[in-house]
Specification:
The chain is an alpha+beta fold. The protein has nine helices and 16 strands. The chain binds adenosine-5'-triphosphate and ligand DP6. Belongs to the diphosphomevalonate decarboxylase family.
């Protein structure tokens, strides 16, 4: 077979100013702008390979080793937009192979749990559109391509960039100005780290799409959020990122997570994404910040109970004196630290223990299955790793 093949990796992003609510469901146009931090692909990434050729009979997708339907309208919209861009190029240069008319085989792997509130759909759709952009040799910039990823899953548009990313909601009804743009690069503020406390990696019970639809329809609080709260916060958060003002960034991040979950609770019937462990972690974070009399850590929760903690590298020992103390029985620590470094966190805790002015449930770790230690990372990357057999077009 004559197959054209390309592969790309894409990162997960975790919003610090949440996207919640659509003004157009088919185009995935949001009711508010949002902001996220892109996480390192060393720890969380999607790898997607695509093959395109005249002999392929139908579009196919294999996700994590299993064939999955490509039938969803959202995926179809992404494929259509990418083919339209390719067709335009072909129309202006008749020597180009007519890839826009050929079928695609897509093979993808997430190196972390899929559909568990760890933003797999964001990394997944970003990797898919970037891999196809590469095989089609499209010339559009990534903000333009982010509009296509957005149609797959709203938050996916932010995974087109590394560092700190804004999704500008836009105004036009066709979505032509609803796109991701970089706020700051990873290099501008490289010492941002993240610890994900995986509270549950089972599939969540209210999918984001239907959850946000219900909130838009039923929550009064939501109107206040999109009209008065988020627009101001969007500007303040961008400024805090550009100025590398962690305390302001962290306060806005925590407030916004709480505001988003409050609108979920205000939906009718209410939606609960956080559980008792999530709430205990929130309390712990506030206690840690109060103990040091400084905001050194922020929590944020997506549509699930998992906590993502953002902090600066220089405060790691101060933070992990507590986080390692309470969660040392959970797996994941040894991916980044050796035994003596871990011992050091416990010593730090012992050194501050007698000054402690709060209590934490010693069993809090029982609600957490693992920690993922990571940091701010880069946007999508090309890769030589290929998941597809170049002769057959089937998964390797
Ligand atoms: N690598 C991938 N390639 C293509 N599609 C993917 C990929 N990974 C995930 N998806 C799609 O995303 C869906 C999961 O999205 P869902 O929003 O339910 O979970 P999530 O993204 O992990 O959680 P959240 O968006 O709340 O953080 C999968 O069922 C699949 O359709
Ligand atoms: C809580 C969130 O994680 C919601 C993400 O929702 P999705 O992007 O998964 O929703 P769809 O556009 O319907 O696919 C907040 C965020 O990432 O901004």
């Amino acid at each position: 077979m004559t197959l054209h093949v390309a592969s790309a990796t894409a990162p997960v992003n975790i919003a610090t100013l949440k996207y919640w609510g659509k003004r157009d469901k088919d185009l995935n146009l949001p009711t508010n702008s949002s902001i996220s931090v892109t996480l390192s692909q060393d720890d969380l990434r999607t790898l997607t390979s695509v093959a395109c050729g005249p002999e392929l009979q139908e579009d196919k997708l294999w996700l994590n080793g299993k064939e999955e339907s490509l039938g969803s309208e959202r995926t179809q919209n992404c494929l259509k937009d990418l083919r339209d861009l390719r067709a335009k190029m072909e129309a202006s240069d008749s020597s180009m192979p007519t890839m826009s008319q050929w079928k695609l085989h897509i093979v993808s792997e997430n190196n972390f749990p899929t559909a568990a509130g760890l933003a797999s759909s964001a990394a997944g759709f970003a990797a898919l559109v970037v891999a196809i952009t590469k095989v089609f040799q499209l010339k559009e910039d990534y903000s333009e391509i982010s509009k296509i990823a957005r149609k797959g899953s709203g938050s996916a548009c932010r995974s087109l960039f590394g560092g700190y990313v804004a999704w500008e909601m836009g105004q036009s009804i066709d979505g032509s100005d609803s796109k991701a743009v970089p706020v700051s690069t990873k290099e501008d503020w490289p010492n941002m780290k993240a610890a994900v406390l995986v509270v549950s990696d089972v599939k969540k019970d209210t999918p984001s799409t239907s959850g946000m639809q219900l909130t838009v329809k039923t929550s009064d609080l939501f109107q206040e959020r999109i009209k008065n709260v988020v627009p101001k916060r969007f500007e303040e958060m961008k400024k805090s990122i550009v100025e590398k003002d962690f305390a302001t960034f962290a306060d806005l991040t925590m407030k916004d997570s709480n505001s988003f979950h409050a609108t979920c609770l205000d939906s009718y019937p209410p939606i609960f994404y956080m559980n008792d462990t999530s709430r205990k972690i929130i309390r712990l974070v506030h206690n840690i910040n109060a103990f040091y009399n400084e905001t050194i850590v922020a929590y944020t929760y997506d549509a699930g109970p998992n906590a993502v903690l953002y902090y600066l590298e220089e405060n790691e020992e101060k933070l992990f004196a507590f986080i390692y103390k309470y969660f040392n029985k959970v797996s994941g620590w040894d991916t980044k630290y050796n035994a003596s470094e871990l011992q050091n966190f416990l010593k730090k805790f012992d050194a501050v223990e007698e000054k402690l002015n709060f209590q934490t449930d010693e069993d809090i770790y029982k609600g957490v299955s693992r920690v993922i230690l990571t940091r701010v990372g880069d946007g999508p990357q090309s890769t030589d790793q290929c998941l597809i057999n170049k002769e057959t077009g089937l998964p390797n």
